Amino acid sequence: MMRTIRRRGLRVVIAAVAAGVAAGCGSGGTSARTDAEGVTTVKVGLIPITDVAPLYLGVQKGFFTEQKLKVEPQLAAGGAAIVPAVVSNSNQFGFSNNVSLIVARSKGVPLHAITPGVGIAPGNNEACQVLVPEDSPVRGVKDLSGRTLAVNTLNNIGDVTIRAALEKKGVDPSTVKFTEIGFPDMVTAVESGRIDAAWECEPFVTSLLRRGARSVLNNYSETHPNLAVASYFTSTAYAESNPDVVRRFDAAVRKSLDYANAHPDEIRAILPSYAKIPAEQATKINMIAWPTTFQRDSIEELVRLSQKYKLIEKPVSLDDLIQEPKG
Asked: Is the pTM of this model over 0.85?
């Protein structure tokens, strides 16, 4: 029943956004807020996980200041919550997993991915994993059948890639019950036995591993060896009204991604500033990759899987989904 409610909730949110824009209620085209010094303030919807560390580091290093941008982070549980905020112009930009963006575009929500956000690569693919308690009877992937598994948001990149990975391992994904719990709350939920397994992302993977939890599935790498996990995006109307702001934001983010890839120790150092983890723990987390180009073949695979698992009715064109700024 909970799963049905969550599915309906996501559909209602996306339908409401689409209807609001169609009726002229969306304000995605609102002009950028720029001060007398020419600095534009932008609100950016983010999730408090390792994936968005390059943006915080880029702010610290002055990469956004160089582009005359002031970033105001707006934290949310996942991409499904960030999408409506961006389309309504409450946030000018957002960070979202690519499945959320695919689903939104399939429903006619006027948004576009503009900048790569985070992905995986061989050697950098341990940041999100399915974990179970040390004393769990779940000893391997096949033991997940009949169990309850938590993801941060339902009908998103977590459960889509877990379903795909389970099938590859010979497990019927319909036998696994997915439930929705925020990343920070999964640690307690696993330890208390409220759920059988948790799909966690760093820095919370390390929190559970240090408490004796065991990894039973690496769903991202099982789905695609170079999976494009998430992107930065904006609304179509905002991009059309403020192309220069979008171009400057894109430039600052890409410089931040490049810097992050070359300076993992600085990524670890900045994590406690927004993810609320001890500095000592941040030094031990699994790192992820930050590609500066869109890994289109893996996004195509996410489109295929989203249709297979009935999140969308027909394929979404990548040329429609991805609109990189010009200049």
From this structure: yes
